[in-house]
Design a protein that fits this description.
Elements lengths: L2 H24 L4 H23 L5 H4 L2 H20 L6 H23 L4 H22 L13 H16 L4 H21 L14
């Protein structure tokens, strides 16, 4: 695997593992619960992606560094939170946004490298970006971001589309990934800062 892609994937793993720890500690879970939420958030989307594409064994079984990174990140995050009592509330969506951006593009890159068509590349990028957070939220008894009015999956789709466009224009891998990550992250963080959201449809027009 290209070193830039690998480092990017590890950064996404760390970001998503931290977001899993934040949710778990807010719910006052025990150490096992914290590790489970950190793990599923960090590798859940990529695992589903690899199984759908037939890229088995999935990546973290082949490369155990992902497991070590999740364990170390979870431990350090818990120790840090214990030391300062709590993380600022804004950190969860920020870490989640970084993980979303990186994983979307890494997933799209892997699908493209395996020869899948551009529509499939976009879908696989989105799956990699959002599924881990979905599993985390479901286990935590929360409605996942992607199923709410949050601009979340939309940002992921944008990133995957940008990567496909860059590939069509024959941009090098680092440039394509950087632009796609920046696009995803910019849209997600902008939506958070300015409270932008998608319309919500209800059966009652007055609701």
């Amino acid at each position: 695997m290209n070193k830039f892609i690998y480092i990017s994937d590890m950064i996404g793993t760390i970001s998503c593992a931290v977001s899993g720890v934040l949710v778990a500690t807010r719910l006052r879970m025990d150490p096992f619960g914290i590790l489970v939420l950190a793990g599923v958030t960090a590798i859940g989307g990529g695992s589903v992606r690899d199984m759908l594409m037939g890229a088995t064994p999935v990546f973290w079984i082949v490369d155990n560094n992902y497991i070590y990174v999740i364990l170390i990140t979870a431990l350090l995050a818990v120790l840090w939170q214990h030391r300062i009592h709590r993380f600022p509330p804004f950190l969860l969506p920020v870490f989640d946004a970084f993980g979303l951006a990186v994983f979307t593009v890494v997933g799209a890159e892997k699908a493209l490298g395996l020869g899948f068509s551009w529509p499939v590349v976009i879908v696989m990028g989105c799956i990699t970006g959002v599924v881990g957070g979905m599993i985390r939220d479901i286990l935590g008894g929360r409605i996942p971001f992607v199923l709410q009015k949050e601009i979340y999956a939309t940002a992921s789709i944008l990133g995957a589309v940008l990567y496909v466009v860059c590939d069509y224009l024959q941009a090098d891998t680092i440039t394509a990934m950087s632009l796609a990550i920046l696009g995803t992250l910019s849209l997600r963080l902008s939506a958070m800062y300015w409270h932008l959201s998608l319309p919500v449809f209800t059966p009652d027009r007055n609701t």
